[in-house]
Amino acid sequence: MFDRVARRYDLANHVLSAGCDFWWRAQASEIVGSWCAPCVLDVATGSGDLALCLQRKLPQSKITAVDFSRRMVAIARRKGLRDVVVADALRLPFAAQSFDVVTVAFGLRNMRDWSGGLREMRRVLTSSGRLLILDFSLPRNALLRKTYGFYLHQILPLFCRLITSEKEAYEYLGTSIETFPNGSEMCRLIESNGFSRATAEPLTGGIVTIYTAAAGSIS
């Protein structure tokens, strides 16, 4: 699916988020930048937008990115991402404790095993490492939540078909967002898979949330 939409993936993201995706990634990169991490891994990097933000924000750091879609990886390389490899997030090709920070933007939700993905991210983090997750969530405000639900199921698939000619590839998106843990539920999921001190910061009325956590002991 991601191979099929790769060519128009960035355009779809920018249009469907009304450009908010630029700001969401900028907020995430500000947080990671404040950690001054020497080695950062961006998991499920897609076309590489977050990793590229981090590459610009942390020019002295080593930014590595992985994604399982070869076409997405090819686009990320053409955009200037220096170190990006094809790999499955559930089987990362890195030794334990290889990175100081792991990030994942709009990728954990698409993994077939959320807990497995989190455990694998924890495995490659140092004992003092940190995690940042940026993903869609549900607004707490009832009216906004209802409006957002209508957009996800009625408007978004139509726009996706016009932009990418792949309506079916995006039809799952609304359901995936509604069934994905968010807020305190996501924090509990993160902490149950080897992390500690998980926090949630909603953005844009709760349409997306930035989660951060510290590497805790592996049970």
Structure, explained:
The chain contains ten helices and seven strands. With 219 residues, it is an alpha/beta fold. The chain has one domain (2-138, 182-213): Vaccinia Virus protein VP39 (Rossmann fold), CATH 3.40.50.150. A seven-stranded mixed sheet has the order 3-2-1-4-5-7-6, with helices on both faces. Helix 7 packs antiparallel against helix 9. The radius of gyration is 16 Å and the shape is globular.
Oligomer: single chain
Tertiary shape: globular
CATH class: Alpha Beta
Total helix count? 10
User: What order do the helices and strands follow?
Assistant: HHHEHEHEEHEHHHHEE
Order of strands in the sheet with most strands: 3-2-1-4-5-7-6
Q: Please name the fourth-level CATH homologous superfamily.
A: Vaccinia Virus protein VP39
Here the CATH topology equals Rossmann fold
- State the distance separating the first and last CA atoms: 35 Å
CATH architecture: 3-Layer(aba) Sandwich
Pick out its properties.
Rossmann fold; alpha/beta; seven-stranded mixed β-sheet; globular; 219 residues; 10 helices; 7 strands
SSE arrangement:
Blueprint: H1 2-5, H2 9-16, H3 20-35, E1 39-43, H4 49-57, E2 62-67, H5 70-78, E3 84-86, E4 99-105, H6 114-124, E5 125-136, H7 142-164, H8 167-170, H9 173-179, H10 184-191, E6 195-203, E7 208-215
Parallel strand pairs: 1-2, 1-4, 2-3, 4-5
Antiparallel strand pairs: 5-7, 6-7
Helix pairs in contact: 2-7, 3-4, 7-9
